[in-house]
């Protein structure tokens, strides 16, 4: 497992996993958003990853960020599809949300054997894919941010 040592604070290193390498970096926001990146092994063949931005400042936003990423990881570890994970976490956040707090999320599940990614974009910026043939924008799934509207049915796509 190879990591950029300057940018991997708080990441699991997956020392027993040799089928892939991960490189990541985070850039601090100046707009009062709390950004996070979380990686976790669902099982020996699937890697869950979540990128998110929580709207807000101060301690309430920091707590909402911690709760959001913990709920996504805990739900993802059950092995449910990306769309089901986002639906479940969204409903929990709607019930427990501090007024006007929400989180935009890109959540994906990488099958390390096939290379397929099951993903949902819940109101996050469009991600890009870097490959040997260049850079391309990933199709959006038209999901809304988490924590605003209960019972939203998130749609997933595969890459």
Can you describe this structure?
The chain has helices at 58-76, 82-96; strands spanning 33-43, 46-55, 103-111, 117-122, 128-131, 134-137, 157-158. The protein is an alpha+beta fold. It has a five-stranded antiparallel beta sheet with strand order 1-2-3-4-7. Helix 1 (58-76) runs antiparallel to helix 2.
Instruction: Please tell me the total number of domains.
Output: 1
Helix- and strand-based class?
alpha+beta
* Neighbour order of strands in the largest sheet: 1-2-3-4-7
Radius of gyration, in angstroms, nearest whole number = 15 Å
Helix content: 10-25%
Strand residue content: 25-35%
Superfamily (CATH H level) name = PPM-type phosphatase domain
Count of helix runs: 2
CATH C-level category: Alpha Beta
The name of the CATH topology is Phosphatase 2c, domain 1
What's the CATH architecture?
4-Layer Sandwich
Given as residue ranges, the uncertain stretches (5+ residues, pLDDT < 50) are 1-10
End-to-end span in angstroms? 23 Å
Morphology: globular
SSE sequence, one letter per element: EEHHEEEEE
Largest sheet, in brief, is: 5 strands, antiparallel
The average pLDDT score comes to 84
The tally of beta strands, per DSSP, is 7
In short:
With 159 residues, the protein is an alpha+beta fold.
Descriptive keywords:
159 residues; 2 helices; alpha+beta; two-stranded antiparallel sheet; globular; Phosphatase 2c, domain 1; five-stranded antiparallel β-sheet; disordered N terminus
């Amino acid at each position: 497992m190879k990591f950029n040592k300057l940018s991997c604070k708080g990441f699991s290193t997956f020392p027993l996993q040799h089928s892939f390498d991960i490189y990541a970096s985070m850039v601090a926001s100046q707009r009062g958003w709390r950004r996070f990146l979380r990686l976790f092994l669902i099982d020996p063949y699937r890697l869950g990853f979540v990128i998110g931005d929580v709207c807000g400042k101060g301690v309430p936003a920091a707590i909402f960020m911690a709760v959001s990423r913990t709920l996504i990881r805990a739900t993802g570890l059950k092995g449910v599809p990306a769309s089901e994970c986002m639906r479940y976490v969204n409903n929990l956040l709607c019930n427990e949300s501090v007024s006007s707090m929400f989180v935009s999320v890109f959540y994906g599940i990488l099958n390390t054997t096939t290379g397929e990614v099951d993903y949902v974009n819940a109101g996050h910026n469009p991600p890009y894919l870097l490959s040997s043939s260049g850079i391309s924008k990933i199709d959006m799934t038209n999901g809304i941010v988490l924590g605003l509207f209960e019972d939203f049915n998130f749609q997933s796509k595969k890459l």
